[in-house]
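Appendix B. Chain record.
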Amino acid sequence: FPFSAVGSVHVENRIRRFRPIAVTERLTISTQAGNLREHRKGMLLDVTSRFEVGGDLVCEQVGTFLSQQRTSLSEQERGPAPKETTPPPPDAVLSVNLGQIRNYAAASRDRNPIHMSNVSAKAFGFPRAIAHGMWSAAAAIANVSARLPGAVDYQVRFGKPILLPATVNLYTAPAGGAGDYDISILDRKKGFPHLTATTRQIP
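Structure tokens predicted for this chain:
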């Protein structure tokens, strides 16, 4: 494998669910890694998982991960810093602490050290432990998940990590079609994005 999963950062995720999946259905899951490419901060890799029931594809997920290291792009100029401005009043407020994230790590079995303690997170360049990207992706759609269509495309881009403990602003705006939403999680004081996402019905 091209690099260690330990310390890698989840930067983007896309889930395409083609129909509702019952908890009683037996899933066959196949996963492969590919599309290795350079980034200014390291190497990006896509991990694609296919979920099948009886040979029928019911869901597909593509997670993009960053392994932080020097590359030929490391000396490129940084893009503009996330804009800092006082955010508008949120639709909801999310709070999360290290205990909750450790519980999530136990449930998901994602015990990456950047999530487990401040000491281990600092070893990978973070000032404190950070929330899992997929925790924030799940929390972002919790209030609208019951209104999502059976066939839905959920795309997420992760911004600045959520340093623990944290309280952040959640925004959810209808985007036209049934079950279509534009979603974001912003820093409560400076307004920069921790997460931007969309849900769109699959025709």
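Further analysis of this model is presented in Appendix C.
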